[in-house]
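Shipment paperwork, digital attachment
Item: protein structure file
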Amino acid sequence: MKKTKLLCVLGAVAVTSSLALTFAVIPEKANAHKEPHDAETLKAFEDAFMEQVVLGDNLFHGDPAAQKQTGVNLSNTGMACAMCHPISSDIHPHEFPKFQEQMSEFATLRDMINWCIEKPNEGEKIDPDGDAMKALEAYMYWSARGSVLDPGRH
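Attachment content:
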């Protein structure tokens, strides 16, 4: 008797699932733009991005001209980001946001960048939405390209 009821239930589930799949509406792939970008536009986007990556690279390696250009002081100790993180992908930007032990709080990548500037480098906190922060972030993400997003990981 129990076996018969179980088979009836399983049969009903199978029929229901089959009907749900038959009548399910599968949407087309969503695109941010109705038309694909042409090669010239894509090149312009890439050039703008790489300009920020280069600026971020210069800031990361302590270039005084890049700091002057963006109006920031990243260090008063003579340290640059690259002195603790010779390869910027070692920062693991793909793992943010996460709980950051040094800060004793949940932090974004931008929070961590400012913590490093203020604490070990004794520099001046930078605007989280400013040009220097965007450039540093672009360089760090570019350095970690190909990494799988894994927020919260340690």
